[in-house]
Amino acid sequence: MNSVICVVSKANVRLALGVTLLASVALVSGCAKPSASANVYTYGQAQRDQVVRNGTIVNVRPITIQNDRTSGAGMVAGGAVGGVVGSTVGGGTGRTLAVLGGAILGALAGDAVEDRVGKKDGLEITVRLDNGETRVIAQEADVPLVLNQRVQVVSGAGPTRVTPMSGQ
User: Fold this and answer.
1) Chain centre to alpha carbon of residue 137
2) Which pLDDT does position 5 carry in this prediction?
3) Alpha carbons 66 and 121: distance in angstroms, whole number
4) Structure confidence at residue 156 (pLDDT)
5) pTM
6) How far is the C-alpha of 164 from the C-alpha of 153, rounded, in Å?
7) What DSSP element (H or E) covers 120?
8) Which segments of the chain does DSSP mark as H helices, in order?
9) How many angstroms separate the CA atoms of 72 and 80, rounded?
10) Beta 134-140 vs 119-129: how paired, if at all?
């Protein structure tokens, strides 16, 4: 009798590991997201003619950039893992309730994790262009930019970017 329980326990562990692996793959594949970096170009944006306007930074403000919506991978992965964990509790009706509860709690936790991963530190940069116009651009905070710095505003083949002028 003990060997049967041990085999069932090993099967549950294997099932849990398999579902966890699949959930991890789903979560990682759901993490592919567009970049708001001034340093990242897609293949479609590369080798395209762009307009460059020079200007001076008149204001820099820290912001948070987040995805418009989640892919759902975190919720699916969390729900799967939670359901598997819940299946190891109790038996009969109690196990069914544990599976449902685990799946719901796991889905909520997975969605929260995906939402947190989808946020990045950013900057809202106000630039007074040399022609007198003022532009505001939001981008990731991965390029050091400061007040009164001379910059280039690059636009025309996708997102507008603010980059330091050469030699700055």
Assistant:
1) 20
2) 46
3) 9
4) 85
5) 0.56
6) 9
7) strand 119-129
8) 2-30, 73-87, 92-117
9) 12
10) antiparallel
